[in-house]
Amino acid sequence: MGRTIKFLALAASLSAALAAAPAEARGGWQCVTYARTITDVSIRGNANTWWGQAAGRYERGKTPTPGAVLAFKSIPGMRAGHVAVVKDIVSDRELVIDHANWTRRGGVEHNARVIDVSDAGDWSAVKVSFGNGMGSRVNPTFGFIYPAAGERVAAPVYASAVKPTHRLAPLGVEIAMLARAEMAGGN
User: Fold this and answer.
1) What is the dihedral of CA 158, 161, 165, 171, to 10 degrees?
2) Which residues are 11's β-sheet partners?
3) Which of 36, 66, 70, 140 has the maximal Cβ count within 10 Å?
């Protein structure tokens, strides 16, 4: 009986959280919630504020490493910026990322390709896969936010055996409930 009451209380709490969440939050993951959930980078707020908020809290730089958060700047059509998590390094100008809310509103995308198109080769401008091909929009970035001091793992270039694929993953029930509850409390 006690387990039933606890379950019903949890269900009621989650229902209230969903009712209080904005409509766009109920559609799935936001990029910031997803990045925060799968990394040790604990920053809140719009993605375009993460770079500044990371100063003094996390190491930042222009070198991609697995587990780092790639922070995108605001541009028309992407006012709040974007964040994505580096999954693997394919070459000195190509990454594989996991991120949310890019190809499909609220959807999580695994193994998306990112190509460095900056003149200096410093990841300050990238193109990201969209649908079954490479997106045409050039997206300016701030750089990479590394999870925590001492946890940055250097990966050799070309170390990946991961083949970039375009796949939107369904959310697990437990993860979806956690995300919705967190989004109800704000970013």
Assistant:
1) -110
2) none
3) 70
- A 10 A CB-CB count for 63 gives 14
Q: What tens digit of pLDDT does each residue of 66-99 get?
A: 999 999 999 999 999 999 999 999 999 999 999 9
What are the pLDDT digits (tens) for 115-156? 999 999 999 999 999 878 898 999 999 999 999 754 444 333
147: nearest Cα among 87, 83, 59: 59
Torsion of CA 132, 135, 141, 143, to 10 degrees: 40
Under a CB-based contact definition with an 8 Å cutoff, are residues 32 and 54 in contact? Answer: no
SS (H, E, C) 13-26: HHHHHHHHCCHHHH
Helices (H) and strands (E) counted in the chain, each on its own, are 5, 9
